[in-house]
Design a protein that fits this description.
Helices cover about 60% and strands about 0% of the residues. By secondary structure, it is mainly α.
Length: about 120
Amino acid sequence: MSDGRIFREAWIAGVTKHYPGEPKAGYVTPWDGTPAWERAAAAAVYGQVRDFIRVSEGHAARLTREQKGRFVAICWTAQMFKHFEDPKPGYVADWADLPVWQRETDSDIFEQIEQTV
């Protein structure tokens, strides 16, 4: 499975688990229906998390769940600035401004990537 697809499937699983109510269709669109920019961003963030875990020689496991989620969120924000000249504020919101469901999902993504490294 490709790196981006692993990221996307972890995102969908997190949204399904943590989103209050019915998530927007775009939040749970399968990989094959995801736009090219989003696939590229997912692959890039997966790679950043994977490399972070590797260069820490596994000690990233000692980060708190929040720290893991923050790392994913920051990497994603950088990708939004890369792909959009003027991204929507929600795409680049600071950790404290993200909804709880999204923070939990970002933490889940890091932990999923940990399991694949």
